[in-house]
Amino acid sequence: MKQVTKIFIIFLIFSFSGICFGADESANGTFFKANRFYDDGSYKDAALLYERLIWHGVTSGNIYYNLGNAYYKMGKTGKALLNYERAKKFIPDSENLFANISFIKSTLDVEQPEETYSIYQKIWRGIRGAVSVSAWFIISAVLFFSICLILGIGFINYRFRPKSHVISGTLILVFILSFICFFDAHNSGKNFKEGIIILPEADVRYSPSYSGVVAFKLLEGMRAQIIRRQDAWTHIRLNKEKSGWVESEAIEAVW
Amino acid sequence: MWKRIGSFIFLSIYLTGFTAFALASDEKVSMSVSQKEILLGDSVVLTITVEGIDNPETPELPTIPNFDVKFRGVRQESFSSMTVIVNGRQIKNEQSGGGYKFDFELMPKSTGLFTVPELPILINGRRYTTQAFQVNVLDQSERRGDIFIDVHVDKTEAYLGEKILATFKWYFSKDIGTYRINIPWLESIKNFIVTDPELDKDRSYQRLIVNGDKQIAATKSREFYKGQEYMVVSFQKVLTPIAAGTYTLDPVFLKCDVVTGYRRSRRSLFGSFFDSDFDDFFGFGRDAVTEPFAARSNEIVLSINEVPGQNKPLEYNGAVGRFTFDVDVKPLSLKVGEPVTLTMKVAGSGNIEQLELPHIPDIKSFKSYEPESKVSVSQKGGDVRGEKIFEKVLIPRSAGDYEIPEITFAFFNPDTGRYQREVRGPFSIHVAKPEKEEEVKVIAITSEGAEDRPRRELKVLKKDIHYIMTDIGRIVSPKKPIYKNIALWILVYLIPITMLAGMFVFGRRRERLNTDIAFARSREAFKSSRIFIKQAESALKNGQTREFYDLLIKGINTYLAEKLNRQLGSVGAALAEELKAKGLKEKECKEFKALYARANEVIFSSLAVEAEKLKKDFKTANELITRLERILR
């Protein structure tokens, strides 16, 4: 019985490693094939293959970037911007990516309404948005460790104790600030997901129904915060003054 | 099967020299042939297109010498665009010709260059005639491989400065996976200036990576070569020799993975789900099976000659090619202080970029400024053409009638093997006095003498998105953010707290050891007693009974003195009652006392003790210390 179990485990390990190897090899092959479709002008086929890779869990900034390119060439600026935004997460320093985003935004007919903030809100958002939520978590953790370490050294070395109180006191304040940043950034991301309009035009209504009065129209490629989804409708907001409901298929969340 | 039909349709539509040969008001009959060069065993498709005739009868072709003819069917096509699929690839067609298309397959019987004569054909009772055409039938042995590289130059012999156009072509008829191309003469070659020809705005270019990381704009097209259809990737370079001699363009080296087939993807856990025709069509769910392949191109020897020294004009300054020369002087009438511009334009094919300012004699009474030049080169077919314009600004110092003397441009024409002199001018200029002295225009001159005119900004002509990424990049599995991991929260906050607690305890204890002598002695008691106990054990082994008991009692006394923070002399058997009060059992007390009594007897009266008794006392002493360690904690 033990022998059979052993053989079964070995078989499982080998099968799994085979799948992993095959996946990596085939992912590259599919990517190059998609690139060839793109080169040949078959953008739809290229997009299909890039989407297929992502569907299989093979994600990279370059795949999202190329997918954005393919959608742009197909005339789908919304989908293009959506995938560029996704690519940002992986290749935040890519000059080509930002050039493409900037170029496509410059081709949009309507100006994106921006949220108006007070000077304090701007400063707070600037600090909070300086790094990602995960980075705030790491900063908080490192600060907490440092506080404990410095206090601990103070416990052991009585000469260092007065200094340790000053340093750890300062660090505690920074830690509290970083933890609030983490908490706030996490909550704002949880409450509002960013979405992009992917249809040429989307009616924003006052209620989640076709009988609802159309408040304004959004055009493809415009950004909006997704508050919640209800059946086939999505509650969105652009800023304090502009919010409403759009058909869910008109907007796609970046993440 | 589908591949063959696809290829058949493709051949009949694309590789043609359309030749209209009959026109009658709305009726139009035309013919086309699929290719002019084939291998023996392959066939040519002759397509006769009939427009403007409803339900035309199938034309009857007469016997064609050297060819077997077979009718392959008729297709009716509209004028809308159509899509043809060949070998699983989708190829978009432009507006296809409408009407009825009759396909005839012409199979050659032998090799050679055959002329298919004008053929009389009859359609619905009307007579039409095809145009004659030639078909070159090659032997199968002339077939090249599936992949090869060809490099050729438009001339192997040139004069110094004369441009040579090198064309790189990569032919392949199979899918290629990864590739590596090494072109030794890509960027520089000794005694040559290597430049890129101007790109054709109407063509689409693709990025070809060569020499590791160099990107080249290359075209991609389908081509027939020796009767076989290839996908061809090509680009060109312009080589301008700057020194005479014989030079060799080293062969281009290619290494690539050739797709020899496909196998089902092992990656997909959902293989059966995607096992549809759609997936097979695009190759989804399949992995390419590749084989490595290497190829080397031909070597090219270039012979560069000096321009002849005989009859060389004085004005000659290195121009080699076929040029025209024009001079324009504007304005011819002006006032003192106003500029006159001398524009000299050299156009044609040759070493345009390297051309120097044509010879201009000294022009007195004019302030002369450094000339500016701009060059533009374009490539039409294999010919590199362009123009270079020199602009020289002159400002008259005083009023009067002046003459700008003849301006001469001399160049060497490689076609004739002779020098040519092009002379323009002279030009008469009238310079009038300024109406008011103060109105004389002053042009700022920099210290170098160049006119201080504003430079133009670099303008972007047209905007588009940047090209796709060629590598897949770092593959990242989608995962939860780290802060959503509860275990990490516990780890990140619990470890420092535990560490802090540990350091606190350690610090307090250290502090007590430094300040509380009783505590410090108590902590060291066991350790101190062990030194004597170990020495006692050695004495026991050596049979030194007296020393044994002496050390044993010292060990116990040291322990008690340290533990109870007393003087060493104040501890001994008398402490038995005190220890009993602290928890030592009656039996243990007796043993304690007995041990001290025996020790005194041995030490002071040299009493002989049995070995068994000694071992028992050693054991008892150890047990007593261990027991006291527990009681006096």
Quick one: how many beta strands of chain A? 7
Question: What is the second-level CATH architecture of the largest domain in chain A?
Answer: Alpha Horseshoe
Question: What is the C-alpha radius of gyration of chain B, as a whole number of Å?
Answer: 51 Å
Mean pLDDT of chain B: 77
Q: Mean pLDDT of chain A, as a whole number?
A: 85
Share in β-strands of chain A: 5-15%
Most extensive interface, residues per chain? A-B, 66 and 52 residues
- Give me the CATH fold name of the largest domain in chain A: Serine Threonine Protein Phosphatase 5, Tetratricopeptide repeat
The H/E string of chain A reads HHHHHHHHEEEEEEE
Sheet having the most strands of chain B:
6 strands, antiparallel
The helix content of chain B, as a percent range, equals 10-25%
Shape verdict of chain B: elongated
The unreliable regions of chain B are 1-25, 80-97, 266-284, 438-452
Characterize the largest beta sheet of chain A: strand count, sense, and whether it forms a barrel.
Answer: 5 strands, antiparallel
Number of helices of chain B: 8
Distance between the termini of chain B: 96 Å
Number of strands of chain B: 34
Low-confidence stretches of chain A: 10-23
Structural overview:
The complex is a heterodimer of chains A (255) and B (633). Chain A is an alpha+beta fold and 255 residues long. Chain A has 3 domains: 106 residues, Tetratricopeptide repeat domain (Serine Threonine Protein Phosphatase 5, Tetratricopeptide repeat), CATH 1.25.40; 73 residues; 61 residues, SH3 type barrels, CATH 2.30.30.40. Chain A has 8 helices and 7 strands, in the order ααααααααβββββββ. Chain A starts with a helix and ends with a strand. Chain B is an alpha+beta fold and 633 residues long. Chain B has 5 domains: 138 residues, Sandwich (Immunoglobulin-like), CATH 2.60.40; 156 residues, Sandwich (Immunoglobulin-like); 119 residues, Sandwich (Immunoglobulin-like), CATH 2.60.40; 26 residues; 115 residues, Four Helix Bundle (Hemerythrin (Met), subunit A). The N terminus of chain B is likely disordered.
